[in-house]
Amino acid sequence: MSQFLSISGLRATIDDQGSPKEILRGVDLEIPAGEVHAIMGPNGSGKSTLSYVLSGREDYEVTGGEVSFEGRDLLAMEPEERAAAGVFLAFQAPVELPGVNNANFLRTAVNAVRRARNEPELDAVQFLKAARAEAKRLSMDAEMLKRNVNVGFSGGEKKRNEVLQMALLQPRFAILDETDSGLDIDALRVVAEGVKALRSPSFSALVITHHQRLLDYLVPDRVHVMARGRILKSGGPELAHQLEAQGYAGFLAEAA
Predict the structure, then answer these.
(1) What is the reported pLDDT for 1?
(2) 130 in the Ramachandran plot: left (φ > 0), alpha (ψ -120 to 50) or beta?
(3) Distance (Å, whole) CA 186 – CA 180
(4) Is residue 248 packed enough to be buried (19+ CB in 10 Å), middle (13-18) or exposed (0-12)?
(5) How confident is the model at residue 7 (pLDDT cuts 50, 70, 90)?
(6) Rounded to whole angstroms, how far apart are CA atoms 176 and 217?
(7) DSSP β-bridge partners for residue 175
(8) Residue range 44-53: mean pLDDT, rounded
(9) How confident is the model at residue 256 (pLDDT cuts 50, 70, 90)?
(10) Cβ atoms of residues 214 and 205 within 8 Å
(11) In terms of C-beta density within 10 A (0-12 exposed, 13-18 middle, 19 or more buried), how is residue 53 classed?
């Protein structure tokens, strides 16, 4: 299978009170087309940093390595170019945007991506029809489309709104940074089903999580253990069960 995403020797730092602090210390990862991969690891292992670097967040400086996305140099692309190419990031803590209508925000984002892909834009009627259909599938109240982005939303509503964005944008590669954080069992199932609905030979995902229960719904193709800025071990879904039973101590000892 072709490699949607290929990461080789990726290193990145962040400014820490005036001096660079290395977070990623040589990440190697291959994700083929059509596969869902999961990353698990203790706090501070670099999981969220990896998601931010892949999506183009400016706070981080890449100091080494390469990232190829469908044959293109991902690191050379601006964040908006990455989005147009099909990269999507669902945040661990979605931000609130007071004064910004949710439906207008979503339609603007969808049409910006469609323009970049030389696809026809959606008018207001077409967009609302699509948005309401996806909201219903995610068990979201359609009234949420009329509210400001994430303002007054519960934790579960914010995460469902992220999955709604993903469903409407139809990315080719989605990064979910602890999207399951703070979700109850029912909301977790809905979010997982939203991701599974996008699975196809032309869609891949990287799911960052602390909880094996999300992976019971998603059934990832591969699970990776990350600690101290690099991938320590990779395996099948059974690796998540091993981590649930044994914790990270053994893997941290290997990384020492």
Answers:
(1) 43
(2) alpha
(3) 11
(4) middle
(5) very high
(6) 14
(7) 89, 206
(8) 94
(9) low
(10) no
(11) buried
* Of 27, 17, 35, nearest in space to 52 by CA: 27
Counting beta carbons within 10 angstroms of the beta carbon of residue 130, is it exposed (0 to 12), middle (13 to 18) or buried (19 or more)? Answer: middle
Model confidence pTM above 0.85: yes
User: Where are any strands of DSSP class E within 123-212?
Assistant: 148-149, 173-177, 204-208
Q: Which of the four CATH numbers 3.40.190.10, 3.40.50.300, 3.40.50.720, 3.10.20.590 does domain 3-96+172-255 have?
A: 3.40.50.300
For 153-171, the pLDDT digits (tens) are 888 788 889 889 999 999 9
Q: Give percent above pLDDT 90 in the chain.
A: 60
CA quadruple 183, 187, 188, 191: dihedral sign: negative
Q: What pLDDT is recorded for position 255?
A: 61
- CA 231 to centroid of chain Cα atoms: 17
Domain ranges of the chain: 3-96+172-255
45 in the Ramachandran plot: left (φ > 0), alpha (ψ -120 to 50) or beta? alpha
Amino acid at 202: S
Give me the pLDDT at residue 230, please: 94
Which amino acid belongs to residue 237? P
- 240: pLDDT strictly greater than 80: yes
Residues 6+ positions from 138 with CB-CB distance below 8 Å: 160, 163, 164, 167, 190, 191, 194
Taking the C-alpha atoms of residue 229 and residue 247, their distance in angstroms, rounded to an integer, is: 18
Q: Which residue has the tokens 């969808």?
A: 110
The pLDDT tens digits for 142-153 are 899 999 999 998
